[in-house]
């Protein structure tokens, strides 16, 4: 969130996994993966898909699940802050067209969220960067986004009115993402343990983040994996990502490359990009938060206007920023006592409570959220239920 009466920078108020589980009572629990077949993840990127998610006996469109999660997040922040937000910004992939954006807008209106601006992810990342470093008009920034399940490459330009515009965008299709790198590390560990060995995906994700740039090893389930061994395993995938990124740049010569997404915690990504582009490669200590923080800044700018505050003194074109949370370039070896990239930052405490059903506004939304017992015990429905179904 970003405060209207405070600094321009955003703060992280809440971090929770994008997971929803349908309970027997017909409510949703948030943030915890539950019984298979009754929980959903990855729905935010499937908004507008014709195939809904199957949760128990219910069929739930991705846009409705996304709107319910956003509603829950807003409710949690309101409970802590004691007031409603003046405006809300929600990110989406840059490749979305009017149909997907319209579906998400309609779903959010159905749960009572009206003052909402949709922002493409690379523009949000650029707004977050512009809070710390001056970006002059017509300067270009490239955005390398690597999350758990998605990869994209974008080029944005600073407009004269101090906003950003999208110049080019490529959405990865057959590229490895953060979850795939976890699986590659999992395969290395299982190869040492044998078929009877047990290792969890969570252990591999934490170990992947712990690889430093200096050739250190990590221990997963009692198995030591050297950094060089892991880098050798993922090198073809990293080269594929960087190759797609450089092709997306085309003739553009960006002033900087912004790394966003949790997958960019792997220092090998920054190393590969630094050797492939002739500009600085920048990343926050927690790159998975960059887009969310940029969204809060974008929501603030909707209310106060882009000219309400002076730009930072330093320029992203000529000099390096001295902001402590950024590294220039990422490929530089950090000091031995610096472990920013070895472990994720502590998350704010989250007391996850069940998601209460929204008031009955749209028949389709409420019918999806009926308790499971209302359908499971009968093979036919009444005429009223049929009417609601239509």
Automatic annotation (TrEMBL):
Keywords: ATP-binding, Chaperone, Nucleotide-binding
Protein name (database record): Hsp70 protein
Organism lineage: Bacteria, Bacillati, Actinomycetota, Actinomycetes, Pseudonocardiales
The species this protein was found in: Lentzea cavernae
Region (Disordered): 328-390
SUPFAM superfamilies referenced in this protein's UniProt entry, alphabetically: Actin-like ATPase domain
InterPro entries, sorted: ATPase_NBD, Hsp_70_fam
